[in-house]
């Protein structure tokens, strides 16, 4: 492979080119299979320049995770208008989430699949992004719960599990939607909103499902008698 000639340009622009190329290669080929040669070639720079700017493959992958995480959280926050009712805020947040993950499938692959498969420090970087989104959803659900129960002092920890479940469902649904061509971002968001808000609406109204009481072994019904 011949040397790649590069034109002088601002460092920020050149680094963005490298990260764009790296996200594409990491997202499609995976961290282990991706090579710095491929990334440099796609970015239109020399491999030594990639190392000069971003030090190592590990540092480059970490930079990709951070950039994609920041972009996703910014998109979700930007999609939510604070003057809307809570259910509308949740809907707009879900729409923004699924639209972003659909428009940036390689970035989502880096965050959701690759980062979690290759240990530290990548897992912690992705977990920090997830924690920020969970905290954001927790606040939305807490506001809805306080309004429904007329209890302004209801602590966020009472609904934290619901937020965790909702974010987990969104992650799985986005991964499925990105590999199912006939499913649009709007459809994915609508599916989760219907699933989540139906349950949340009942919960807010005090309609809480409870498991049946457990019977100990002595309460088991007798086995049917054998025929004579």
UniProtKB/TrEMBL annotation:
The keyword DNA-binding applies. The keyword ATP-binding does not apply. It comes from the Bacteria. PROSITE patterns: HTH_TETR_2. This is TetR/AcrR family transcriptional regulator. Residues 12-72 form the HTH tetR-type domain. SUPFAM superfamilies: Homeodomain-like (SSF46689), Tetracyclin repressor-like, C-terminal domain (SSF48498). Residues 207-228 are annotated as: Disordered. Residues 35-54 bind DNA. Keywords: DNA-binding, Transcription, Transcription regulation. InterPro entries: DesT_TetR_C, Homeodomain-like_sf, HTH-type_TetR-like_transc_reg, HTH_TetR, Tet_transcr_reg_TetR-rel_C_sf.
């Amino acid at each position: 492979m011949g040397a790649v000639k590069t034109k002088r340009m601002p460092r920020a622009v050149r680094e963005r080119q490298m990260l764009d190329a790296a996200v594409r290669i990491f997202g499609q080929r995976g961290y282990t299979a991706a090579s710095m040669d491929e990334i440099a070639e796609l970015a239109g720079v020399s491999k030594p320049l990639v190392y000069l700017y971003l030090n190592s493959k590990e540092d480059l992958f970490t930079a990709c995770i951070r950039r994609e995480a920041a972009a996703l959280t910014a998109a979700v926050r930007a999609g939510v208008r604070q003057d809307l009712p809570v259910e509308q805020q949740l809907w707009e947040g879900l729409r923004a989430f699924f639209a972003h993950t659909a428009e940036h499938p390689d970035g989502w692959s880096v965050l959701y699949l690759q980062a979690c498969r290759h240990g530290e420090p990548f897992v912690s970087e992705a977990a920090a992004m997830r924690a920020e989104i969970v905290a954001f959803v927790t606040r939305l659900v807490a506001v809805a719960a306080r309004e429904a129960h007329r209890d302004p002092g209801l602590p966020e920890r009472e609904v934290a599990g619901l937020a965790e479940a909702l974010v987990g469902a969104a992650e799985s649904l986005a991964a499925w939607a990105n590999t199912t061509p006939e499913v649009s971002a709007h459809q994915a968001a609508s599916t989760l909103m219907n699933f989540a808000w139906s349950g949340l609406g009942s919960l807010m109204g005090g309609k809480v499902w409870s498991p049946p009481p457990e019977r100990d072994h002595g309460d088991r019904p007798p086995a049917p008698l054998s025929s004579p």
